[in-house]
């Protein structure tokens, strides 16, 4: 059975916590006897050292030390009338209560004089009156001094002491405490693992459910952003994606409806005229054929516009780029639209900087851009108004501007004017026979050249469309000159 991420995270956290606690427990358990042995030996060494110094001070020599040795060493453990309290509490009735540690710790140390001659032997290797090598004295011996004068060495033999019942009890209770700590750590790890797994998987479950609803057709879904970490970033990205998909779907539906509407209008006109002439209601005349042909041209233009947009979307819009003087584009555009502007009573003005560098562009595509922009400008400029064609240099290349003195559009509508089938004034667009694709095509062609386009407007101040195009690259200039 497939295991959920919730339990995988929980088990992983428990495994890590248990492994860490078990390793710590094993290390402490393995090192506790050795550490306790070292503590016992260090305590005995310091006590015996002080006793031996006191003995030497009181006798002035080591005479009789061998006979007194067992009595001195015995003073390090319990003696009648002396109570040695352990460093941990002992229960009633257990060994060690009310008395010292009763454990044979003798024969762990030996004694030599200042020259290294053995006075008390604790190791068969060095019997009494033998001499311990200096390197052994330096390694295993502890110097004994009286008034700053060396008088001997305390030698420890390399063996561990046996533990008495109280110390064994201490170790057992230490091991029990470790086992309890390990069990407690495991319980805490389970609780934290469950909480952490739930906290991590709840956002993922919400994303999964939202994705399923999107797959079922409910495109606009929102999930709660509950943190600022990677899961929160994922939730925010999902919400943005959901909104973008819903918006794209809405635009697709709107575009389909707009295409159907715009295709239906000319087709209805054509079908009406042909049906009337077939039934004899209308007689065929050149004017009526001209009307039918005009609607056919309108359909052809719309199909061509859609083809251009599909090529631009796929990155396959063919461009025949070459170095073109920017002033030539403006002059050619003004010559084409001058008569139309005069017919409408609009003044067409051309403003250009001198000595502008050439622009790397497809001249025919750029004329298509200027045709769309000038057609819109003249359409919305009232008689007596002005339309400006401008070109100037900019930091990124060459900037074209087409500006009219019409009514303008509200600022909140400006980002929408380059969308497909956008119509700020649907009635005027319908009457003029527009497809609503003109500015979309402008944007597609300009961006295919590596340029960018934007608009500036305010109600009553007209509309200015800015086009920024790259100048001819230096490499291309060298190629053309060669």
TrEMBL record:
Check the record and name the Pfam families matching this protein: HAMP, HATPase_c, HisKA
Taking every annotated instance into account, which residue ranges of this chain make up the domain Histidine kinase?
258-473
Domain named HAMP: which ranges? 198-250
Quote the SMART domains the UniProt record gives.
HAMP, HATPase_c, HisKA
Query: Sorted alphabetically, which SUPFAM superfamilies does this protein's record hold?
Result: ATPase domain of HSP90 chaperone/DNA topoisomerase II/histidine kinase, HAMP domain-like, Homodimeric domain of signal transducing histidine kinase
Q: What is this protein called?
A: histidine kinase
The record, for Gene3D superfamilies, names: 1.10.287.130, 6.10.340.10, Histidine kinase-like ATPase, C-terminal domain (3.30.565.10)
